[in-house]
Design goal:
Blueprint lengths: L2 H5 L24 H14 L3 E4 L17 E5 L2 E7 L8 H12 L3 E5 L4 H9 L24
Parallel strand pairs: 3-4
Antiparallel strand pairs: 1-2, 2-3
Length: 148
């Protein structure tokens, strides 16, 4: 590696790894898969049963598009969770699924890396209402406001 690459900030010294990317708000950009692994690790730490839906768009055995990424179960609670990168957007199908799940009285969440502390509270409490006024979404999303 040449020193000019290091000076231009293209790689770490003695490494070929690219520098971390930041979101427009200055937060560390994290791939959804890395975030998902952290959420799964936290869920297992709190002894939740976990089902991960691999890309529902590619399922050929009857799953509708937009099904949430995770289903977490720890009686008496059941959670449906859609994970998004910091700048990820919900599709209409994902929004529809989460609204339908909420209308059935089941907890449904949209979680982003910035929500990690709140995620810990939701997974670590019995009621799921980690903060006063929480109604099933760790952070309401513009696609879900006024729906369900």
């Amino acid at each position: 590696m040449t020193p000019s690459l290091v000076r231009r900030g293209l790689t770490y010294p003695r490494s070929r790894r690219p520098l971390p990317q930041l979101t427009p708000k200055g937060r560390l950009r994290q791939p959804e898969s890395a975030f998902q692994n952290k959420v799964l690790e936290l869920a297992r730490l709190f002894r939740w049963r976990v089902h991960h839906m691999h890309d529902s768009r590619k399922q050929e055995w009857g799953t509708d598009s937009g099904f949430p990424d995770l289903v977490l179960c720890k009686p008496p609670r059941l959670l449906f969770v859609e994970l998004k990168a910091a700048d990820g957007r919900l599709t209409k199908e994902q929004s529809d699924w989460l609204c339908d799940v909420r209308s059935c009285g089941v907890e449904a969440y949209i979680w982003r890396p910035a929500d990690f502390v709140e995620i810990g509270h939701v997974l670590g409490t019995r009621s799921g209402r980690a903060f006063p006024g929480e109604a099933g979404l760790a952070r309401p999303n513009e696609h879900l406001e006024g729906m369900g």
